[in-house]
Amino acid sequence: MELFDAIQKRYSVRSYKLDAIEESKRNKVLEAARLAPTAANSHFN
C-alpha cells in the first residue's frame, strides 16, 4: 500500500479486541515509537 492510499483509507478505532499481541510485534511497534521524531525535537529523558 502506498502512503497516499493509506492516508485516504485511514479510520479511527474505538473498540479493541482483548486478544494477546505477539511479543515480537509489540516490540517492533514500541521501537518505531521510540525512534519517531518529537515536536520540536523535545525528548523527555
Characterise this structure:
The chain is mainly α and 45 residues long. Helix content is 42%, strand content 0%. The protein is built from 2 helices and no strands. It has helices at 3-8, 23-35. The longest helix has 13 residues, at 23-35.
Shape: extended
State the major sheet.
none
Strand content: under 5%
Question: Radius of gyration, rounded?
Answer: 14 Å
| Unreliably modeled segments | none
Can you give me a brief rundown of this structure?
The chain is mainly alpha-helical. It has helices at 3-8, 23-35.
Highlighted features:
45 residues; mainly alpha; 2 helices; 42% helix; extended
Topology:
Blueprint: H1 3-8, H2 23-35
